[in-house]
Design brief:
45% of the residues lie in helices and 20% in strands. It is α/β, with parallel strands linked by helices. The protein is globular, with a radius of gyration of 19 Å. The protein starts with 16 loop residues before the first strand and ends in an 11-residue tail after the last strand.
Length: 291
């Protein structure tokens, strides 16, 4: 695990406590790097959390294997702590045995009053990909704070930020967050609102973009897009073709949490984007919404 440059420029507001969720695999390198870097820049306290799935039958049949896995995970968490300390970041490690990862995460988020969750995105296929994606989506669906999802090779450099908006309250909160990040980084931004084939949808998309552009006053480079197609596909394609290193999107739109858990635009963007994705919820709302 390599050290990164520790630059004291915080790109986000009100970041005092960061929770890194990791399985300590190779896929977690991007998330670990970004969590430590953000904690350093924001002078935030970092909590590095890993969870071993509790399986009494497995532990009884092969206790030595389980103990070795626990030892390796603890050692990996310790290496993250040492990396953080080299960047001047106070870090606490949390190793759990549990059967419901996202419930344990939510409990820790509430107990520690976390401002930002950083979580890795795996490249699993088939059932395992579906299962792990479900854990991430559940966490995003119930977490009262911002969530940064980071693929293995992704780095948030602040060169270009894509803000996706559908006019919902949560997407407006995401727009405000994305604009704040762009101003602190000196980034250019792309504001995207997807439309279907009807004129009414185009008019609404342009209205959504106009609102965000007014919020972005003072940013020198603002590009607007109103592409036709499936929302997640247009967002992912634009991010790839425009060299975006961060997508900022609302936690869910007008259809609520049920739609999120069944495969929303946000969930699909997280699954397919090559860059990091910051998921933002309206901070005025701390309780879980029912769809």
């Amino acid at each position: 695990m390599e050290d990164m440059e520790c630059v004291p420029v915080c790109p986000m507001s009100d970041i005092k406590r960061v929770l890194l969720l990791t399985d300590c695999s190779e896929c977690s390198e991007g998330a670990i790097s970004e969590a430590v870097k953000l904690s350093s820049r924001c002078e935030a306290r970092l909590y590095a959390m890993a969870e071993l799935s509790s399986n009494p039958d497995y532990e009884m049949i092969s206790p030595q294997d389980f103990q070795e896995m626990e030892r390796q995970t603890a050692a990996r968490l310790d290496s993250i702590k040492k990396m953080a300390q080299r960047c001047g970041v106070a870090c606490e490690v949390i190793l759990f045995r549990g059967e419901s990862p996202y419930n344990d995460v939510v409990q820790q988020v509430t107990r520690l009053d976390i401002d930002l969750i950083v979580i890795e995105r795996h490249e699993y296929k088939g059932f395992i990909r579906w299962l792990m994606r479900g854990v991430v989506v559940n966490i995003i669906g119930v977490a009262p704070c911002r969530v940064l999802v980071v693929p293995k090779e992704a780095r948030v450099e602040g060169k270009k930020v894509l803000i996706a908006t559908d006019g919902s309250r949560h997407s407006m909160a995401a727009a405000a967050e994305g604009i704040g990040i762009a101003k602190r980084f000196g980034s250019s931004i792309i504001v995207l609102s997807c439309v279907g084939n009807s004129g009414d949808e185009l008019s609404k998309a342009k209205s959504n973009i106009d609102i965000v552009c007014k919020m972005a006053e003072g940013i020198s480079s603002v590009e607007t897009l109103t592409p036709e197609g499936r929302p997640y596909e247009t967002i992912v394609e634009a991010a790839s073709s425009k060299g975006v290193d961060l997508i900022v999107i609302g936690s869910y739109g007008k259809t609520g949490i049920k739609e999120l858990l069944m495969g929303s635009t946000t969930e699909k963007v997280i699954s397919h984007a090559a860059c990091a994705v910051l998921v933002v919820r309206d901070r005025r709302q701390k309780k879980v919404e029912q769809g």
